[in-house]
């Protein structure tokens, strides 16, 4: 399971919100590059970078921060927030993003999201499936919808989506633990059944159909192996790092032990 620290950007600064509420903004560092370099120094290879200004303004804003981190570290960055047009994707990838996350766009303009998927491939495009009460939320979580989470993910899975970031908004930034039951449900209902002929005869196999990245509510180190046991492919950790609930040395050791 990949360890993916989060850096959320407002006005070029590293911040965290609670439940996506911009009024709860807390600045943790004026220099996101400094934070990214600290992650890399502890053996971390991945970064989840969110342009919160972009999410509000509905177009990419903080691409210079992305470019700075991408050129001055070796981190593989997934970037999201405000990506609405193919031009936004061009800017994100040219600025050094390894993957981009599309959430609201998949709800509001499915045709465009699928065009991204077909153009860049399912290794580059992540479906952002953020939910409250198992219903999809959009526009930086400022809007709720009536779209149910599991059918939403299954529909895009059939269209070729491989990576899914799922955040339970009610838990995000609350340090109260992740949505274990929700992730178990999502993984179970998106499993793929296949049949193979082996030396022992015809056998049925079941495997994860999506690469699920858990996000929101991570509060302590002990939750990480539980998420891995569920079958999560990655975990995004934000406030737990910034509030020293999980130490960088603990994450370094986890990566060394689990590869």
Can I get a quick summary?
With 259 residues, this protein is of the alpha/beta class. The protein has helices spanning 32-41, 52-57, 63-72, 86-94, 104-108, 110-120, 149-158, 180-189, 223-230, 239-242, 248-258; strands spanning 2-10, 13-18, 21-29, 46-51, 76-80, 99-102, 125-132, 135-138, 143-148, 163-168, 192-198, 201-207, 211-215, 234-237.
Keywords:
globular; 259 residues; two-stranded antiparallel sheet; single chain; alpha/beta
Describe the structure.
The protein has helices at 32-41, 52-57, 63-72, 86-94, 104-108, 110-120, 149-158, 180-189, 223-230, 239-242, 248-258; strands at 2-10, 13-18, 21-29, 46-51, 76-80, 99-102, 125-132, 135-138, 143-148, 163-168, 192-198, 201-207, 211-215, 234-237. It has 259 residues and is an alpha/beta fold. An eight-stranded parallel barrel has the order 1-4-5-6-7-10-13-14, surrounded by seven helices. Strands 11-12 form a two-stranded antiparallel ribbon. It is globular.
């Amino acid at each position: 399971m990949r360890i993916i620290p989060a850096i959320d950007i407002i006005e070029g600064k590293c911040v965290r919100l609670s439940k996506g509420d911009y009024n709860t903004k807390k600045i943790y560092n004026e220099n996101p590059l400094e934070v990214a370099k600290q992650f890399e120094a502890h053996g971390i290879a991945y970064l989840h970078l969110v342009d919160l200004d972009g999410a509000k303004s509905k177009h990419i804003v903080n691409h210079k921060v992305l470019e700075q981190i991408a050129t001055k570290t070796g981190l593989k960055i997934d970037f999201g927030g405000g990506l609405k047009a193919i031009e936004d994707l061009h800017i994100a990838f040219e600025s050094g993003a390894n993957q981009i996350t599309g959430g609201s766009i998949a709800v509001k303009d499915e045709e465009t999201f699928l065009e991204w998927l077909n153009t860049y491939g399912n290794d580059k495009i992540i479906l952002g499936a953020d939910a409250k009460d198992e219903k999809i939320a959009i526009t930086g979580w400022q809007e709720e919808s009536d779209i149910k989470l599991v059918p939403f993910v299954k529909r895009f899975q059939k269209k070729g989506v491989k990576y899914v970031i799922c955040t339970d908004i009610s838990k995000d930034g609350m340090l109260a633990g992740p949505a274990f039951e929700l992730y178990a449900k999502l993984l179970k209902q998106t499993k793929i059944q296949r049949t193979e002929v082996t030396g022992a005869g015809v056998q049925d196999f079941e495997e994860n159909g999506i690469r699920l990245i858990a996000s929101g509510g991570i509060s302590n180190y002990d939750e990480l192996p539980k998420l891995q046991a569920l079958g999560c492919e990655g975990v995004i950790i934000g406030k737990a790092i910034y509030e020293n609930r999980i130490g960088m040395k603990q994450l370094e050791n986890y990566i060394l032990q689990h590869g």
